[in-house]
Structure formats: C-alpha cells, structure tokens
Design a protein that fits this description.
Layout lengths: L4 H24 L9 E13 L5 E2 L2 E2 L6 E17 L3 E10 L6 E11 L7 E9 L36 E10 L3 E9 L11 E11 L2 E11 L5 E13 L2 E9 L4 E10 L4 E12 L9 E11 L2 E9 L10 E11 L1
Antiparallel strand pairs: 1-4, 1-18, 2-3, 4-5, 5-6, 6-7, 7-8, 8-9, 9-10, 10-11, 11-12, 12-13, 13-14, 14-15, 15-16, 16-17, 17-18
Length: about 325
Amino acid sequence: MKFENKKWVLRVALAGALCLGVATVAKADDSTVVAAPVWNVLAQESLVQHFATGAVVGGVNANGTGTNLNAGLENVRLGGTFKAGSDDTLTVTAQLAAQYATGFTLLNAYDVHSLNNFNNGLSLKIGQFKVAFGQDGNANPDELIRANYSIIDAVLPGNVANEGNPWLVGAELDQTYSDLTIQVAAVQSQVYAATNGTKFDYVGRAQWKSGNLALGLSDYLQSTNPVLTLNNLGANGSLSLDVVKLDLEAIFGGAGRNGYTGTLSAKLSDLTPAVWYDFGTTSAGNNLVNDDLGAGLNWQVNAAHRIALDVDFTGPNNGDILSVNTETLQFQQIF
C-alpha cells in the first residue's frame, strides 16, 4: 500500500507508539532481558524481455510491442524484529521500491502480545500487518518458494501486483494448536473509507496440518463502497512426498474474479527447484490476467543468505505464452 501524506503521519506515529509500548513493557520488569534485534535485508531486481513476433520497422515490432530489455531495481526491504521479554515482539519492515513514485513504504509496524495466561497458544497482534488471507498472498517475501508472488493475488480488489496481500492497520487474534492455526482480524478497509470514519474489513483464516498433508480455508469480507460488501473465499492445500511438495490454491473473488495456482517443488538439501502455473478468470469467462508459466531455483546459501532466481513466461493468452519472459533475481541477508 503506497504512502499518502496523511497516512504517513499516522503510520510513523503508530510505529513510535509501538516502540514506546515495548520499551515500557521492558522497563516495567527489571528482570526482563531485551534481546538484540534481528535485522534482514531483501533486494530484488528483474529483467523483462519481450520477443518480437512480427515485422520490425525502425526497431519497433509491427504490433507495437517491439523487442526490448528493461532492467531496474524492483524493491529493497529492510526489516527488524525486536523481542522485549517473553510476552511482546515488535516487528517493523520498510520498503524502498523504484517502481513506485512515492519511493518509501512502511509495511509492518506491529506488536504481538502473548495471551498464554488466558489460553495456551493465544496471541494478539496490533498495528499494521499483512492481511491473513490465503497461502501465497499471506506469506512474507522471504517465505515464498519463488521470488515473486502469484498473479492470483490480484483477484482481491485493491491488491498491488507482486505484493501479495496488503499491509493494513488493525487487530488480529491468533490461536495456535499442535495441528491447527486460527486467525481472525478486523482491518482498515483499503478500498473504501467511510465519510464519517474508517470502514473496517473482516478476515478469517484456518490452517490445518497433519503429517504430509496441509489444508486451509480463508474468508475476507471486504467493503468497496457504502452499500457493497464483497465476500472473497480462499482454499489451499499442500501434499509432501519425501522431498517433493505440491502446493495448490484457489481464490474465489466476490466480484466474480477467480484465480488458481499450482506449484511443484523439491527440497534438495540447500537447493529448492520449482515449477508453477497460474491463471485467472472472470465471471464472463475472460482471462483475468495473462497466464504465468514459470520455473525457479531457491538457494539457501547458509543460515544468513538466500538467493532466488525465477523465469516467468507471461505472453498473451491468445498468442505465444513464451513470447514474454521475466527473469527475477532476489537476495536476502539476515544479520
């Protein structure tokens, strides 16, 4: 979500308040030992190549696409996690993205407070955080098998391409059991803000895992204007057989926009090769976006370094899908 002037002030104030709150917790108990923060940096750069498919005149393809190479820094994310005592953890992440005119974006600025005293595995998250919906869009960039997010995340109104789910201000309750995680949240609407105050959206997510099988369901009740509310549904599943893993996900958007993705990967020591296919449709039967056929390699160099290299083919669905490809290189450093 891009910065706007008013939101910039709000978010900086929010981050400051969270930092003050964590510091207060630490000060309240002299026996609390504040652990050193864990920092991480994630940088990503893409190279987009369009192959000409018709006659070339003056260096430009007859159909207007031409043949070109465009390279540019996509984004750099700097994040930190601060542990203050046993009950509170503060997370702050910022992004400097060349593809956005505003340049700087605050992503995470939240505190997670343990409520184990009420129920084991219960916690409260308050601040600005990634909306808990689905599997691919819910993951942080460093948690993805591939460098980029799936195109199906664009099914949700207001989502930004290659960002997954948005980062919104709100509150979330998480309950974790040995094989089940339940998340419920109320977040500020990113699509519509009421004239007399903030409009809230409501999210629910459940993820179950037993052995090699994992299943999940999500529901995102989203306000888009004073009278219209969209109910977006998500379903995901994973099956692991030895080193091979199959991930499937579907999003059924309330606006008649549906997305589907499948990823096949193999965990080979520090290397994880993967192939995937994404596509989306509308209620009229049209393509939501161009299909994405891709392959990549994720290399966990060591505990502090990770490199991912992807190639995505996204040519026109009514033409040659191999005519357009994007190479993405991603590097992560933890220190």
